[in-house]
Each structure stands twice: as C-alpha cells, then as structure tokens.
Amino acid sequence: MKWRVDSRKEKMKIIIENIDENAQVDYPLVMVAGRVESAASVGCPSAAFDDEFISVLSKNEEYQWPLLSNKFKVFVQLRPGPNELVLVCSGASKTLHFEYKIGSSRKRKIRLFYVRCCDDEEGRFQAPEGVEASRELAMRRLEFNCQLLQCFCAEKFHQNHFERKTFAFETNPLTGLPVCHDYQLKQLTTKEASEMDQKTLWRYLSKELTNQHDKLDDCFVFDANVKFLTFLSFTRYHPPAVDAGEVIPQTHKEILQRTTGYCALGGGNLAVLGTACLFSWASDLTELLRHFSDETIVDRSKLMDDSCNRRTYAGCYATTLGATLHELGHVFDLGHSTHGIMSRGFDDLHLFFVPSSTQKYSLLQRLPITAAATSDDLVTVSEKEPKSLVSTTTVQLREDDGRTKMKRILSYSDGTNDVILSYLPASGGSVPRVALPRLSSLSSTSSSVRLIHDGAISPMGTLSVTHRADEMRKVKRDAPVGDWKNSGQAEWSWPHLVMLSYHRWFNDYDDDDLANEIAFDGQTVSSSHGLVVIELLNESGVAFQSWNLTDLDPVPRRFRLRLAGIEHQSHVGETITIIAEDTRGGVLRKTLPANSLLS
Prior knowledge:
Layout lengths: L11 E5 L6 E3 L3 E10 L14 E6 L2 E6 L4 E7 L3 E9 L2 E9 L8 E8 L18 H25 L20 E5 L5 H5 L3 H13 L15 E7 L3 E2 L14 H6 L1 E2 L3 E4 L2 E4 L11 H8 L20 H19 L18 H4 L11 E3 L26 E5 L5 E10 L5 E6 L24 E3 L14 E2 L26 H9 L16 E2 L3 E3 L4 E7 L5 E6 L9 E3 L14 E8 L4 E7 L6
Parallel strand pairs: 2-8, 9-10, 9-11, 11-15
Antiparallel strand pairs: 1-3, 3-6, 4-5, 4-7, 5-16, 7-8, 12-13, 14-15, 17-18, 18-19, 19-20, 21-25, 22-23, 23-26, 24-25, 24-27, 27-28
C-alpha cells in the first residue's frame, strides 16, 4: 500500500526520540514521541511550519494528533504479534514496527474488578443526567485506562534510564487487552455499603476477594500470584438540597461527607477505588485528549468534584486516574514520598498524556484510510545512562528525580569486617574520575550507618548510597510546549523506581529463585539474594531517608541500621517503619520503636 504525502512541500524528516524501531513490548498501548524537522537541518533547530497535526496510520485506521512546536507525542494501541504503523506529516513519513508479546504469560498479574452489590443488577455508575452510565461502559473505560497506567510506568522507567517494563493485567488472549471482570458481592447490599467508611469497605472486599478459595463466578479461583484492582459501582455523591437552603460543599472534606461508597485505599493484595468521577474518563484513544482537556466546570450541586480543587472534568479525570496509580503503588509495597506519584504528584498525570499550553486537545481525529505512506529511515535519539562519579573521599548521590548531588564521605575500617559510612555537607568542587579502592585499605574509628557485606570486605565499583527524600523537586506543574518528557510532579521518586524495577509484579522470577525471604533481626536487614534499597518512613508513613544499594558491586546481603546514621532525626518520632527490597523482589516492611535502634 502507498500513503499519499505532499511532495510539493519542502522535504521534512520525522525523528523518533523515545523508542526504537522493531521494539518488543509486553503491554498493548505504546507512546511514540519525537519531532519533525527539515531533512537538510536534522539535529538543528528548525522553524515551525503550518502543519497542526501528525497522522498515525495503523490497523486500517488513521488518527491525527496535535503537533506543537514541531514536536509530537502519540499513543498507539497494538495487536498481539507484529504491528506496523506509519507516521505522516508535512510531506514526510516514517514506518515503525513493534511486536506486542502478550503479558498474560507473566505469572503475577493484576485482576481488574468492577464491583456491584448483591441487590444491584444493573451496576450503573453516577454520571450527569442524560449521559450513559452503563456497566458495560464502565468496564470499557476501566480496561482502556488501565492500559494508560501500564504505558505510563513503562515510559517512566525508560525516561529514567531503566529497562522499559510494567505490570501485567489478566488479558484477553485474542485482543491482548486487559479484561475487566464484573463481580457481584455475595451478601453486601447497597444500603449496607453506603454505611461503611473507606477502611471498612476495604477490609470487607479484602476478606471476600483475597481470601476466597471457592470459584468466583465460575471463571477463576483465588491465586496468591494475583493482586486486585477494584472499582465500586455504588459510589454516590448526594447533592445538597439547595432549594431547601443546604449549602453547596466548598472543600474536599465537605464533598466526602456527602459521598457514600467512596474509597481510595491500597495495600497488601488489594486496591479499592470509587467511581463517582468515572463520568470524566475517556473510553478509547479518540476521547483521550478531549477528556484530559475538558474544562467543563463540575456542578457540585449535582456531581462529585474530586479534582484537587481544579473544579473541571479534566481535573477529575487526572486526579482519580492518578489516585488509581497511587493506590496501586501501595499494593506494590511503596510508602508515601514527599513528592511525586506517592505524594500528590498524581494530580499531574494528565501532563504525561497531553501536550500543554494548547487548545488542540480536543482535535484528535479518526479518519478513514485512503492511501499508504512510503517508508523512511528511522532516526532514533537516545540518551546515555549517566554514571556516578566516585573517589576515595567523595560520593555522587542520586536525588529523587534522578539528578545527582555531591557529598563528602569518610569511610573507615575499625579493625572488624564492618565498613562505617559518615555523611558530611558537600563542599563543592569537581569530582575526580578515580576508582574506589578496596574498602579494607581504609581505616578510621568514627561511627554512623554500618554497611555489612557477608561478613567480608568487598571491592566496590560505582556507589549511589543515599538521597535526601525530603528535598522537593522544583518542577513547573505545566510542562513547556512540546516537551514530551515533562509531566510535572507525575513522577516516581528515585527509590520507588528502584523498588519497582526489582518488584515481583514487574518481573518474571523463577519460583526457585524466591526462597530465603528477606529478614530483619532488630538491627540488621539481610537477604541471601542481596539488598537493593532501604527506606525509612516516619509515623505518618512518609519516607524521609533511603539508601540505594544498586551501584555496589556486588550488592550487600546485610545492612545494619543505627540511629546515629539517620541524617534527619528531627523526622523521627516514636516509631520508624523500615521498607527494604532484595534483588528478587522480596520486600520487608517492619515498624519498630525508634529507640530500639542502637545510637
């Protein structure tokens, strides 16, 4: 087939910046981002041109996406097996090939449920008057938006120089798309559910779903390798009787007081979300930009507004889909952070999917196929993974957003097999590129956090030991025009990226590799597989210090905690929660009195 291109225009070139040709992925929705330049000046700034769109031709369909400052970001839904797509813009075309290997082969999956009460046969969700709110539409929206979350995670790994990976849903083997199960509770009525608070609802569903060993709806049985993402059809906002003098709620707390069947909790094997704002979600790619840019004001006299005070349909969409990812983060054993997805950064999730500062959001079009485009050479712009700079006295520290910061470090041996690390303020200056000597050649007597490696001193390569979890990233909440990498605060913190990259729901470890779980004896965290990250949470469940051990070669099998080694002791209350992970995704979570750690 041949796609028609406009030969009358100056020859242009489409450059792909985020993904390679012939890439293999195990999730169905991929992002393709790049720019369009004059072929004569590829790699140099080029003036903007008249085209407002770039066309994506795939599966006998054409989609048009906005082009901003010559840059684009498009999303493509793949079929299982080989896929070909053609990008066409301003007289240029680019052919890409992707292979979608269905993630249903993964052992550990997410099971998606749309939950109804035992007395609810329709399963309708709440929506504006006259707008469709059927169970079928709800399930279709959930299936599509779960693909968005998979894509977000995969791209954020890639943008931060990790292998592109994500979690898997139970999928339809023919389409390769996530499957949403219609689940009717066995005994809970709508009235009973409306009288439950969030924690009670979560506990009820946890008991029925995750402890259920009988067949569920005759289609599957309980599986320890399955985590649950559930949405409650019975969430209802009860509008104020304005005519009777009731006041329209102004705060989120007041809105929640008028909402029943609401939940946004995740942990263990279960995340539970409400559906009062499902009316704002997109159902497929043709609706994505329009819904994420819908400035329609939420009428609080009729509908729930869960938009982080933005009061728009688009704000509700971003916040509630972002909250879904946040609660899944807890299911994946993440604690809260001071910024990013596991704080309130999930409110910025829309910035990942849409161009910013433009009125073209709603212009995504779907056109009939009439021709085919010729292939062009693929030019991929990739970034090299940055390497830590280490000397005998200085260590390069990796911050939450992937940036680095220098600190002086004094490393000593006290005559035992322990290595003692002390952290001092950075004094500035450059860092020489010299190899770190064997730790056994160093000597001293001071004490701080003790790092023990199998009772023996081992040589280390690059080192990225700790970061300041309480230092907020200074990122504009609105991304620059055409900047496809900037998604505001919708980012994983660095320790969370490390944790997810080793997590069992993001990898397919052999069962034989998972023996000998991670352990803690009151002072030392240990794992025969080797440790990758240690994180400390305060009494509010927010991380205030962590150690990234992945740059140690080999990674340590034991890590001793001492109170004197905690940099921000003002954050320490009566208790500390330790979260640790090893190289096989084993996770330890332990809360203990802070004074139980030796000073």
